[in-house]
Design goal:
The complex is a heterodimer of chains A (124) and B (138).
Chain A (H helix, E strand, L loop, with lengths): L10 E2 H8 L2 E4 L7 E2 L1 E4 L3 H4 L7 E5 L4 H9 L4 E4 L7 H9 L3 E4 L4 H11 L2 E2 L2
Helix pairs in contact in A: 3-4
Chain B lengths: L1 E7 L8 H12 L4 H21 L2 E8 L3 E8 L7 H4 L9 H5 L7 H7 L3 E6 L5 E8 L3
Antiparallel strand pairs in B: 1-2, 2-3, 3-5, 4-5
Helix pairs in contact in B: 1-2, 2-5
Classes of the chains: A alpha/beta (124), B alpha+beta (138).
Chain lengths: 124, 138
Amino acid sequence: MKNSDNQFIKMTIEEILERTGGEIQCGAHRKFDKVDRAFCSDLMSDVLTLGCQEVLLITGLANVQAIRTAEMADISHILFVRDKNITEEMIQLAAENDMILVKCKSSMFKVAGELFAAGIKPVY
Amino acid sequence: MDLDYNIEGGDFTHAGEASSHLKKILKSLNLDSALIRRTVVAMYEAEVNVVAHAWSGTIHVNIQPDHIQIAVRDSGPGITDVELAMQKGYSTASAAVREMGFGAGMGLPNIKENSDFMDITSEPGNGTILKIVNRIKP
């Protein structure tokens, strides 16, 4: 939740999973990592404009290039929406780069709204 | 240090492997993390451009104590209007490329944003040569 001063806060991946009904796909050892910002996009070039770390990428693009893009942008936390299929190839690449991948059934709109209301900051 | 990579057009499965390798090399050299991110983002966009638009290409990386130079040469259709291609949002990418999450017309602007020097030489029918230089600050 936002604190009493209505400030944005940091949240662990585990807390994000509780709010979104998400499940870990790989990288469970990072579930206590904290993020304070999130960014929603299916456009990988858009993701590559991010210059910050400790960010949660929320995307509906479930393919190897989503993982590769996160690697280049120094993003270690990805939430896939709409119950997308996370392939073994994606998991392998994510594991090589020490990332945590989670997915949930909700839409990107719903996830973004819930996390924003809970106090996660936007990147832009 | 010199590094050379061959890139195959249309091969989105392996797109980014060259940039991933470069990232590991730059990290092993203990370079500044922001410089590494800018450099590999620029190269990754260039690598994806070759995969998305050309039939094949090569990337040559030269790492010196004070700079990193990346030269990307492709045997593709070339860019008819480089100035237009540099505009955010302009893209000639196919539907298949867009399905992969690219083709939003932000690749070349992203490369420019993440490089200290960028130069494109292209002639329709003769492919494209892209040069990027990022300075290594002491």
